[in-house]
Structure formats: C-alpha cells, structure tokens
Amino acid sequence: MTWTVDPEPYDSPVAAALWRAYYTEVSDRWYRLHEGRATDPDELEREIAAYPGADLVPPRGRLLVARYGGEPAGSSGVRLLDHTTAELTRVFLYGPMRGRGGAALLVRAAEDAARALGAERMVLDTRGDLVEARALYTRLGYTETKAYNESPYAEHWFAKRLRSDRDSRRPRSDRDSRRPRSDRDS
Length: 186
Fold this sequence. Notes:
alpha+beta
C-alpha cells in the first residue's frame, strides 16, 4: 500500500469527516482526562461547526488529505499568520492508519505547502496530554518555543525554520541527515 497527500477543499465530505474524527478524538481525550467523561454531543456539534477550516484555503492556507491505498486516512492544515510564519494545524490520522509513516508525511507535506505560501518558519501548539504529537514534532526537527497565541488548550508551542530550495542545494554534509522513511515508521 502507498501513501498520497493532496490538497483538499476544506468543505468536502472527506475533509468534514476527518475534521469530525479529529475533533471528537482530541475533545473526548481532554474531557476524559479532566472531567472523566466524553464530550457533550451538543458542545461537540457547536465546536465542529464553529471551526470548519475556511482559513485553510489559498492564498493564505491549505488543507491536505493523506490517503493510504486510495482511502482517506488523515489530514494536516497550514495557515499563514504573517508573511513569513505559518501555523501547522489539524494533523490527524485515523487510529488504524497510525504507525505507518503517514503522520510524518503529512507534516512534511504541510511544510512544503507553507513554503509555497512564502513561509520561512512553521509554528504549532499542542496539549500536554498529546505526547505522541509532541514526540512526532520533536523527531521532525521542531523545538519548543515561547507561546505565540493564547489558546486555552495550548500547553506547548513548537517552531521550525523551513529550509528553502536554496538550502536544499547545499552539500549533504551541511544539511540535516534524514534516512528514508519506511511504511513501518511513524
């Protein structure tokens, strides 16, 4: 099976299903940790409707969907915060798709999309309980940084300089070394 990642309209049925799955998972995880219950269904519907992803469209953003064997498997989004800084958002894979290299592929595709939008730096926020996400971002070269927003759920902020095409033409010894990713890497 192979992965593909392509732009997707934020309001497509595929994007809507991925947003619902993502938001349900992270919301339920927070409520179970802090209140011992799942998200109230009415609250879930309000929050999903309140943040449809309309900011993830060109020329200031992009929503990407990963497919595994042709089937929707996950998403990532990027939006410009200013002329040189983009924010990574909505990095998600359906549970059965995890551990197959898709998350790293989605983040790298979002980095490419951010570069295409003119960004030189990527930032993101995440929660403390999302340890898998924090480990992924660290492995991909993101470093913890000062808070850049006041999101009530953000507990960790990360940043990464995005290499330009000019940087990628430097001799290999001057660049980060990266081994090829197999389907079994996450």
